[in-house]
Amino acid sequence: MTTDNRDHHHRPGDGAWPEGFIHCSDPHQFLWVANQRFRGRGDLVLLHIDPSGLDAQIRHENLEGGSEQFPHVYGAIPVSAVVNVTPLRPSTDGTFGESEHEPST
After folding, report:
1. pLDDT band (50, 70, 90) for residue 65
2. Which end of the chain is least crowded, N or C, by CB within 10 Å?
3. Sheet with 22-23: strands ordered across
C-alpha cells in the first residue's frame, strides 16, 4: 500500500483491486513481493493485519501458475484489523531487506 492511500478504505473490485480480492503476503513472503514488484519505491507501508479481525474470506492461492500460495482477502479489510503500520523503505540499491522491516509475531 502506498502512503498516499493508506487512510482510505478500499474494497475488492472498486478499481483499486479489480481482481475482486486484495493481495496480501504472509510474514515470510512480503520481502520477496516487495523486491519483485516494488523495488526502489519509497512510498510504501507494510500493514500488519490480524486475520481474526476480518469478516472476509481469506484464500491461499497462486493464480499465476507458481507453487507459492499467497493469502487473498475476498472482502474489505477494516482499519480495526490493522494492528501495526511499518514504513517500508528500500536500501540505497532499491532493495528491501529484513533487518528493519521484519514483522513481529
Report:
1. confident
2. C
3. 22-23, 70-74, 57-61
The size of the chain, in residues, is 105
Look up cell 519483485; give the residue. 36
Residue 70, C-alpha cell as written in the block: 499467497
CATH number of the domain where residue 60 is located: 3.20.170.20
Single-letter amino acid code for the residue at 78 = P
Q: What is the pTM of this model?
A: 0.75
Residues 2-55 have pLDDT tens digits of: 444 444 455 555 555 677 889 999 999 999 999 999 999 999 999 999 999 999
Residues 6+ apart with CB under 8 A from 55: 75, 76, 78
Report the relative pairing of strands 82-88 and 44-49 from DSSP bridges. antiparallel
In a domain, 14, yes or no: no
Cα–Cα distance for residue pair 55/77, rounded to 1 Å: 8
Type and span of the H or E element at 87: strand 82-88
For residue 62 the three cell numbers come to: 497462486
